Amino acid sequence: MSPSLATTLRNIVAVARREFLWRGRTRTFKITTLLLVVVGVGLALAPVIIRFIDRGSTGDRIEVVVGDSNPAIDVPGALGLLLNAPIPGLPTDGDTETDYRVEAAADIEVARERVVDGSTSALLVLDRTAAGDLAFTLYSKDTFLSRTTQLVRQAASSIAIQDRLIQAGIPPIDQAALFAPPDFDVVAADPNATTNGPQTGEEFVGSFAISFVLSILLFMAIILYGQWVAFSVAEEKNSRVMEVVLAAATPFQLMAGKVAGVGGLALVQYIVVLVPSAAALIFQDRIASLILGGSSDVALPEGISISLLAVFGVMFVLGFALYAVLYAGAASLVSRQEDVNQIVAPLTIISVGGYLVASYAGTGLIPIDSPLVVILSFVPFFSPYLMLTRMGMGTAAPGEIAIAIALLALFIPVALWIAARLYRSGVLMYGQSPTPRTLWRALRAR
């Protein structure tokens, strides 16, 4: 190793170590990390927490007045089953009481008074239309868009359909077969293709949810911690510390060390928050069984694979490195921290654009195989988002993923060269507004 290279690496490591240790020891960093861990774990265990809070509740009481409608089914019983059907994704156990208690009532006015005084949540009154169909009137303090109102409305629709079928002479045993879905297969148009994306609704939800969550994690890291790097550069420049440090290290060494130190600390905080939150999410069923009772199995969420996590890790590091060096170079052009948001706005807009296109492609608003999505998935600024989404949806070949990673890795030195030129000129530039002309002059400076 040449003396100049050894000196460069030594200075970079020294600057990175100083940034990492100094900022990591601050009270703000420690408190923020602790709060983020608590919030992350709390969000991951939100269904269990809600279930624990409500476990001792007797639920909302809903009264039903059948009157002279003479329904063909037991409306209070059917309504109770429909309202208390388990919600997918919410942990349940046999000892937990139902959310809704449905009871039959005879007097509408008396039951309506109980709704007014709060002892009953809602009153459902049945009647018959001129055509002979069931009609429902709900008396409640809730709005039309409330959860209870919508659940009762959906349950009433199911009860009305079942009543019509029985009135038409279709026995209950045949009603299930009447609404059974037909066999329906989706086959790839290309006979050589091994997959045509998710084949079922569950597969689509699982693949989209995983790729969407991973894109959010990457987006948050780039925006939050990229700006953290930018504000760190502006803070030191504003305090004139750079003028002293530049006597011992070159602008390139200072920038590389700052990006490595602040970026490394940011990634450490991110991992500290992410690991317990992910563990709480994966072991949510087991935690629910310990708190609420019952038995449960532990399994990774659908759509997660080792290959997807590996690609996410590579894209995470490379994508963050790309944006972090550019954030640092751009922030060196401003003299006040108030101007940081203005100078890094173009980078933020580019990152937001890639995230939005990935989200739209994952939800189907933009075809996942459209030329726009495919081409942008190879552009370094967008590939971390779009290639993850394409891979999660099963539309990206392994060769395409490798090419996108290679292009992203090759573009980082280019970004580093641009950022270094900006940094070299910007760290000693004071009192000038961050304009395109300033940017061009910094790039051309020798």
Order of helices and strands: HHHEHEHEEHHHHHHHHHHHH
Q: Shape from CA axes?
A: elongated
- The percentage helix is 55-70%
- Give the C-alpha Rg: 30 Å
Largest β sheet strand count, sense and barrel closure: 4 strands, mixed
Distance between the termini: 27 Å
| Number of discrete domains | 2
Overall residue-averaged pLDDT value: 78
Beta-strand segment tally: 4
Global structural class: mainly alpha
Note the quaternary state here. Answer: single chain
Low-confidence residue ranges? 88-98
Arrangement of strands in the largest sheet = 2-1-3-4
How much of the sequence is in beta strands? Answer: 5-15%
SS element count, helices:
17
Question: What topology emerges from the helices and strands here?
Answer:
Blueprint lengths: L2 H22 L2 H18 L1 H9 L5 E6 L9 H9 L16 E5 L3 H10 L4 E7 L5 E7 L6 H21 L4 H7 L22 H38 L2 H5 L5 H32 L1 H9 L13 H26 L8 H24 L7 H6 L6 H10 L5 H29 L9 H9 L2
Parallel strand pairs: 1-2, 1-3
Antiparallel strand pairs: 3-4
Helix pairs in contact: 1-10, 2-10, 4-6, 8-10, 8-12, 8-13, 8-15, 10-12, 10-16, 12-13, 12-15, 12-16, 13-15, 15-16, 16-17
Task: Describe the overall structure.
The chain folds into two domains: 281 residues, no CATH class; 122 residues, 3-Layer(aba) Sandwich (D-Maltodextrin-Binding Protein, domain 2). With 446 residues, it is mainly α. About 2% of the residues have low confidence. Helices cover 64% and strands 6% of the residues. It has 17 helices and four strands. It has a four-stranded mixed beta sheet with strand order 2-1-3-4, sandwiched between helices. A hairpin with a 5-residue loop joins strand 3 and strand 4.
